Amino acid sequence: MLVSGALSLTPSAGGAFQGSNYGFSSGGYDSGAFYDIINSFSFTSLNTVADHGDLSVARIYLCGQSSSTDGYTTGGSTGSTTDTIDKFAFSSNVTATDWGNCTSVRRSGAGCSSSTDGFISGGWISSPTTSIDKFSFSSNSGASSHGDLVTGRIEPVGQSSTDYGFTSGGWISSVYRNEIEKFAFSSNTTASDWGDLSVAKQHSSGQSSTTEGFTSGGRTSGSTNTTAIDKFAFSSNTTATTHGDLSVAANYGGTGQSATNYGYHSGGDDVSQIDQFAYSSNTTATDWGDLTFQAWSNAGQQY
Question: What domains does the chain contain, in order, with CATH numbers?
């Protein structure tokens, strides 16, 4: 177990949406149980997973955000949908604390991070929602409305550039979606269309380099798990291209972490494995160790 002061940490090189030290997986579900466990793993050496404290309440269908010092886990379900925003320190493994609330109970949304705020887009409130929530990393006053997506969807994933959040994939009314939408961190206008994934899918994981977003794994129509990693440019709204594959076929429902040169996919349905793939080449991902449990519908953060 990691203890306060045990991590040797340096600031993130790529902004709040990237890390240079550690990835985190928080919460999830396995074998009929909800989990509050937060795992950490090193971006610089494999097989280094450790316990990093707990969420304030065990839950699934989460999304994650990252500031330069803290991780956030928002919404989800404890058996019933919640509006909880949890905050935990990257530097110590104490239990997470309440950091205000979403504007409504919500689950299965996508998480994005600017340098100052966290965002939750889409998901389920009382039905698939278009709403985007924004909350401050500097005060726990709770979330406020930050515009809407064009299309409401459940279980999309998020990617972050310096100035924009992206929401990709998901599903609505049993139809899987391929849309990528883009919204500005600085204003709460409605999101705009930003091209499409190479295939419609949901419950993938999201990663971000400084120039591109990645949508990894997930489930396609016909309830078929996919290993495909999609890549799309932050600078142009063309259709995404394939960027290699994850190494594990059963990778539905995992979460993503973003380092400066590599993306990570951790957990999934009956999966504890962490995969690492390079942003610069589209070869198959490699095994980077295992979480301490098989985490499904967990949330990802990075430092």
Answer: 22-302 (2.120.10.80)
